[in-house]
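By convention, the token line describes the chain's fold. To illustrate:
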Amino acid sequence: MLTTRKKFLAGIGAAAFGSLFELRSSFAQSSPAQRWKGAATSKIKRWDVITIGNLSRNRYWGEGDARGVRPAICTCTVIAGDSFHLLVDPSLADGEQMAKELDRRTGLKPSDISAVFVTHEHGDHWAGLPNFPEAKWFAGPIVTKILNKTGKFKKPIEPTPDRLFDTVEVMPTPGHTAGHTSLRFDCDGKSIIAAGDAVATHDFFRDRRGYFNAVDFALSAKTMDRMAKAADIIVPGHDNYFLVA
């Protein structure tokens, strides 16, 4: 008995639909939903990158470590809760420029910043600190001693407690410098680390490589391994943020 064209096309359509359903089911089984590491609830309401940093020399762009080829700017981030705005690594020495970038990215004024945290003692990470005279200034204990001894600041930098605003974890991340400290916090169910130069850029993180001026490259690699286990998102010292694979 001859099959009509209508029946033939209907059979092909049913077979194709069945194959598509099987493909989707197989994909769903082999691709489980992402499990984020952050707490489901958090006092952190949002976080914003103010300036995206760059390196003075970048081996992944074919540049040597011997000399800088451009001015370095660090990545600067604001972490916001119900009653605070915490700025990490103030990057711009020019007060007007710093205020402009803060407004452009968050709508905040320098006077809205409750506290400033400096990850380590290298100048590009505290260049804009004097632009926030009304905020409290924090750093890890080793960095605090180093910076206060310089006599460059009108008020002292305070050693940070284990947590800032009872919700942001202070995380020792040595390797780039001996006293380097990063901040870890939860937001929208994800665990985020503002890493400073414990992670220079995404490329350096993938290779677990410290930047050329790291004091301990082996320790830098171990620190990055530890951060990879703790974070969903890393905000590096001289690059845009990225997801931890």
About this structure: The chain has a mean pLDDT of 91.
